[in-house]
Design a protein that fits this description.
By secondary structure, the protein is α/β, with parallel strands linked by helices. The protein contains 9 helices and 10 strands. A 4-stranded mixed sheet has the order 1-5-7-8, sandwiched between helices. It starts with a helix and ends in a 15-residue tail after the last strand. This is CRISPR-associated endonuclease Cas1.
Length: 326
C-alpha cells in the first residue's frame, strides 16, 4: 500500500467521527514528541535503544493534555482536530490549564442556547440553582435562594466533607491549599486533589468544546475563559476528585496515582456521557440529555428574525436587479 493510500485511509469522514460521550476520557503526555506518520499519530521518545513510539487513539479520545516538555507537529495537530479531539495545554502534573483548541466542525445550536440562558439574569440564576442541585441533590437549594446563599451553603457542605474524609482516613489535620509556587511543599492530599481537579477540568473542557459551547460563559464563575469549565467540574468534585484525593494521603506519587485512578473512575462512573448530558440539562432542561448534536455536513445557515434559519450558499438577490438605478 502506498503512503498516499495510507493517509487517505487514516483521514476521518463525518460518519467516522465518534460522539464525545462515547470517547475515552483523557490522555496526559509529558516530555514526548507527538508526530504524524503514515499510519497515525504517535508519541515518540528518544532513548539509548533508539526511538520508542506509542500510537495514540485520537479518533476515540475526548481530550489530550499536553504537559511540560511536550512538542507536537502541525500534521499531528491537524489530524487530532479532524478527529474532534480537544487539545489542552497544561502545566507540570496537569495542575494548570493554559489553552484549549476547539475542533472547527461544530454546530452552534448549544452555544446559542447557552448564550440565551447566560444573557438573562433570571435564567442565569436558574442554571446556577440547577448546578447546585446537581451537586447536592434535587430540592437541596432553598426556594428563592440567592447566589450568595448558595455559595454559603456550598462552602458549609464542602467543609463538612473535608472533616468527614479527614476522620475516615485518620488524617490529623487537613487544610485546602493550592499554591503553584510552593507545589513541592504541599501534602499528598493537596497534590492529588489539584492534579485530579486539573484533569477533570481538561475533560470537562473537552466535553464543552465538543458540544460547541463557550468555556468562558459561566453561570457561577465569571471573568475567565474557563468560567463554564469550573462551573461544570464543580458538580463532580464532591463525588469523585475529593474522595479520590483523600484516599491517596499516603501515596508516594499522589499526582500520578490521581491521574491513573481518575481514568478508572471515568470508566466506572461513566462520567463522559454524564458530563455531556449534564451540560445539556443545565442549559436547557426541556431538551437536555436527549438531543445531542453531532457534527453535521451541512452546518452553516443564515439567521432571519422572522423566517428562522435559511439555507446558506444561496444568492438571495434579484437576478434582474438593475445596478444602473443606484
Amino acid at each position: 500500500m502506498t503512503s498516499a493510500a495510507r493517509r487517505k485511509l487514516a483521514a476521518p469522514t463525518l460518519a467516522m467521527l465518534p460522539r464525545v460521550s462515547d470517547s475515552l476520557s483523557f490522555l496526559y503526555a509529558e516530555a514526548v514528541r507527538v508526530v504524524q506518520d503514515d499510519t497515525g499519530v504517535c508519541a515518540q521518545v528518544e532513548s539509548a535503544r533508539g526511538i520508542d513510539r506509542v500510537y495514540i487513539p485520537t479518533a476515540s479520545l475526548a481530550c489530550m493534555l499536553l504537559g511540560p516538555g511536550t512538542s507536537i507537529t502541525q500534521p499531528a495537530m491537524a489530524t487530532i482536530a479532524r478527529h474532534g479531539t480537544s487539545l489542552v495545554c497544561v502545566g507540570a502534573g496537569g495542575v494548570r490549564s493554559y489553552a484549549g483548541i476547539m475542533p472547527a466542525s461544530l454546530t452552534t445550536s448549544w452555544l446559542e442556547k447557552q448564550v440565551r440562558a447566560w444573557a438573562d439574569d433570571k435564567t442565569r440564576l436558574e442554571v446556577a440553582v440547577r448546578m447546585y442541585e446537581a451537586r447536592f441533590g434535587v430540592a437541596s437549594a432553598p426556594a428563592g435562594a440567592s447566589l450568595a446563599k448558595l455559595r454559603g451553603l456550598e462552602g458549609q457542605r464542602i467543609k463538612a466533607l473535608y472533616r468527614l474524609l479527614t476522620t475516615k482516613h485518620g488524617i490529623k489535620r487537613f487544610k485546602r491549599n493550592y499554591d503553584p509556587e510552593s507545589w513541592d511543599d504541599q501534602d499528598p492530599v493537596n497534590k492529588a486533589l489539584s492534579a485530579a481537579n486539573s484533569c477533570m477540568y481538561g475533560v470537562v473542557h473537552a466535553a464543552i468544546l465538543a458540544l460547541g459551547c463557550s468555556p468562558a460563559l459561566g453561570f457561577v464563575h465569571n471573568g475567565t475563559q474557563m468560567s463554564f469549565v469550573y462551573d461544570v467540574a464543580d458538580i463532580y468534585k464532591a463525588r469523585v476528585t475529593i474522595p479520590l484525593a483523600f484516599s491517596l494521603h499516603a501515596s508516594e506519587d499522589p499526582e500520578r496515582e490521581a491521574r491513573r485512578r481518575l481514568r478508572e473512575d471515568f470508566r466506572a462512573f461513566k462520567l463522559m456521557p454524564q458530563i455531556v448530558a449534564d451540560v445539556q440539562a443545565l442549559i436547557d432542561p426541556d431538551t437536555g440529555g436527549t438531543h445531542y448534536t453531532d457534527r453535521q455536513s451541512d452546518l452553516v445557515h443564515l439567521w432571519d428574525p422572522h423566517a428562522g434559519a435559511l439555507p446558506a450558499g444561496v444568492n438571495y438577490g434579484s437576478e434582474t436587479f438593475d445596478f444602473s438605478s443606484e
